[in-house]
Amino acid sequence: MDFNIIRIARVVMNVTDLNASRDFYVNALGFIETASTSEWMALRGLEEHCHHSLLLKKAEKPGVHAVSYKVWEDGHLNALESFFKGKGAKVLWKEADMSVGIGKTLCVEDPSGIPLEFFVEMEGAERCIQKYDLYRGARVQRIDHINCMVPDVEAAVAFYTDELGFRVSEYTATEDDRTWAAWLHRKPTVHDVAFMNGEGPRLHHVGFWLSDPMSLIHCCDVMASMGYADNIERGPGRHGLSNAFFLYIRDPDGNRIELYNGDYLTSDPDFKPVKWDINDPRRQTFWGHKAPDSWFNEATSFLDMETGEPVKQKSPTLAQRKPDFVT
Hints:
Elements: E1 5-15, H1 18-28, E2 32-36, E3 40-44, E4 54-58, E5 64-71, H2 74-86, E6 91-94, E7 105-109, E8 115-119, E9 142-150, H3 153-162, E10 167-173, E11 179-185, E12 193-197, E13 202-209, H4 213-225, E14 232-238, E15 245-250, E16 256-261, E17 274-277, H5 294-297, E18 300-301
Parallel strand pairs: 1-4, 5-8, 9-12, 10-17, 13-16
Antiparallel strand pairs: 1-5, 2-3, 3-4, 6-7, 7-8, 9-13, 10-11, 11-12, 13-18, 14-15, 15-16
Cofactor: Fe(2+)
Keywords: Aromatic hydrocarbons catabolism, Dioxygenase, Iron, Metal-binding, Oxidoreductase
GO molecular function: dioxygenase activity; ferrous iron binding
């Protein structure tokens, strides 16, 4: 292929109250506010050298405008444009918008209906990994992954692996060996994107990397002390899949965030994907506690890149099962 996708780099989504979001993301979770206006707020983790990894836009209701991948060079954007046009996909360009720190961006829709962005350039920002006086809340370091509910996981996996160059690290199979969920990566960790069986497309969560497991515990204490105990949805715990420590929380608009630490290296070309049986009890969490019903039922709608309206959702091709094990 004539392009090199490096990693998941940002998510653009709606919130209804920027001040409430600031209190949650900056004061409770420890994001750095790079810039903001009355209409948007750009956030980054302590480790990140770029303008933002999370762009929150003020709107009347929640919704996800795009998930964005960084690519190696400008020529790869053109190659991706040709590729997606050849597939008959929606394609449009956005000129550089340095008011929010982003360069020229290619916008497309993948076969599941997920709005994707690809970019090369983002304005730099101070890397604060050793500014320990700024560490608070969860001490969020960087964006790690996204997880999307899609109606046909097998089709999504085939497209991303065969056409975009992603690799599978782990997957869950049903009794008849159908793929129920899968974790795919470009950077050498467990995943940049995961796909799980469900009504979609919808964004299940955005995952952010923490420096250590105790940061999850500390975040629980901070959230409880600030009145956000009810926003803790699941965890803390350890996943079977990925082996990572996790904490799932909901922001004031219900968007799901995962705080995540401790997965493993996947860079070797002879790395074999790890298969999990859907009936394996460790698929819930390695320690055995189960996910709440909200886990299966609730996710955030994607927005059409042209109209801004919610992308039409479809029922899943496989039987729905409570996804207690998703990372």
